[in-house]
Specification:
729 residues, alpha+beta, Rossmann fold, Immunoglobulin-like, 5 domains, 8-stranded mixed β-sheet, 5-stranded parallel β-sheet, 38 strands, extended
Amino acid sequence: MNRWSFAASIPVVLFGLLIVGVTAWLCYSNWDRGGRRRPVALLEGLRFVLVLLLGFTLLRPEFVREIQKTETPQVIILADASGSMMTRDLVLSNSVITRADWLRGATQPDRWKVLEQNAEVSVERFAIANTNAAVTAGQGTDLNSALESVLQRGRNLKAVLVLSDGDWNVGKSPVGTATRFRSENIPVFTVTVGRESPAPDLALEDVSAPAYGLFGEQILIPFRIQNHLPREVKTVVSLLDGTREESRKEVTIPALDSIQEAVVWYPKTVGDRDLTLRMPVEPEESLPDNNEKQFRVGVRLETLKVLVVDSFPRWEYRYLRNALERDPGVEMRAVLYHPGISMGGGRNYLPAFPGRKEDLSRYDVVFLGDVGIGEGELTESDAELLRGLVEQQSSGLVFLPGRRGRQLTFTGSPLEELMPVVLDPSKPAGIGLQNESTLLLSTVGKTHLLTRFESDADRNDLIWKYLPGFFWSAAVEKSRPGSEVLAVHSSLRNSWGRIPLLVTRPHGSGKVLFMGTDSAWRWRRGVEDKYHYRFWSQVVRWMAHQRHLSEKQGIRLTYSPESPQVGDSVFLQATVLDATGFPINEGPVVGRITSPSGRTEQVELPGVEGGWGVFKSSFVPLEGGAHTIEIRSERHARELTTEILVTQPQVEKLGQPVNSQILREIAAITGGANGSVESVDALVEQISLLPEAKPVERRTLLWSDPWWGGAILLLLAVYWIGRKLAGMI
């Protein structure tokens, strides 16, 4: 059925008729005065038509088409088949079943007999898991697409019934599509499948294991446990190498809370180890399969190369030098400036600062003590080399200022940008106190690897509180943006807050550490080298970790992040040396990435300016698992192969509560109803009682149609041009 609809009042219609009548009289008069010529008749007729069209438009006409659907009404049942439906949290006949198990029973044909009496019923599954590993990165539950695909088919829909836990995690919000259902007078009924509170469970949610560790050294493996049980749980987390227990950690998790802890492992063999972190299953747990995590850690024999640069042999320098020299995993060299006299000499001393790239690039960590730029000390070119070492070679740099205040000379030098703090230039000699002060750990410092003397957080915090303190510290104003403050002065503060004394900062591909006191050697009191050696050993290994991710003779590869996830950008940096040990300046350096499914990707690593032999590129892994990376420079006969383990983020998580809010919102917008699994039959009965669908109205708003307006403008243009031509005749 078709009809016209107008949105004008009677006075407006009468006024329009008056205007049309007046226009008709004027047009006739003009034609009569113009000698009743044919061109004038045509123009006046066109003028009258234009007035009629404009008057018709002002009445806001709409062309209405009523479409009566003759097809059999249809009811679509949308059943959620996503991974989260495997959560076991539904009680049925005194047994706990998964949401998917309930769904299989609920979608049997017998349940829809009431609906089939006056409608055609079809069951459709959505969010089905994809077995293609290359497309699993974005896989999840797209509730909006499921609803939109039903609406786009244009069938005679009577209603839609959604059986889901509402775990919408991919795609657009379904609220927009719900408004379209409302405009089509199609109600959507929703059934919330699952519990609105987390399932009783104890989950080992995350393990942040390093890619490799050093043989003979402790390897810290952090982990996080989530407790969804209504009671406190005391359990033991075990680290297993196969079936052999390597280490264990007793933990206590508060009720309905989580903890972040770490287990310490001392590897006994060299090589790649496949490890398992496991905790026992509690009796009340409904999900026993998330109590362990498997991962791989490489154990290597490495000798880290450290350079210590200082001026006068103060106590901190002496004890630091001894600690590094006695460390079996460290090869230490020292440069000791004696301003005004000759350089310090002896075992492991260098006669001068390594002033060439090929000499300095061998060092993993450089300590800069109370030394600066000036006569008899470092030069501007030395500072430029140190900056390049950190930026391009992933090395670490440690600032250890002293009472001479020589590190203030780095202001305006290439090293200024690397400093994690801003020093107070008005106090070059630092700040001395008569009362002993201590380092106070910050929130970040309490969990950082550098400040961890014990795996137990409370015991570690207690150790730091009782460590011997200091009487002198550097004059620091504040930390610089992008820095992490690990410890602050226990008694001094300024307008920026407490004085930061132990601060780290990433720079380029390397790391920088600032230690604002020269009294760490006092930690030896009563315990000898227990904490002093441990601290500096951890500093060296933490700062050198990135450089030794993968290396071979003449070539080294670092990558970030160390433990990437699917979809992350993995940045590759290769350092290539020629046969004589000099950094190469020209490529080509190419790489090939092979994914677990066998798909290969070729990448070219362009060179980085600076003369350090650095080549960079990146790639994005699209699937989880071990990716093989091959880097080669055929021109210089350098080749390296390594593996990066990419984790697949779990979009569909088990044990999570249902998202009932979105399901209730969809039902409310569309005029449907929401219920639980117990009310499915009631909702089905409600759908069966829905009236027949009303005819659908399709309105064409002629008064706002751009084509209609364009036609009127075209006629006006014709009329104007015709007047000009008629005046010329």
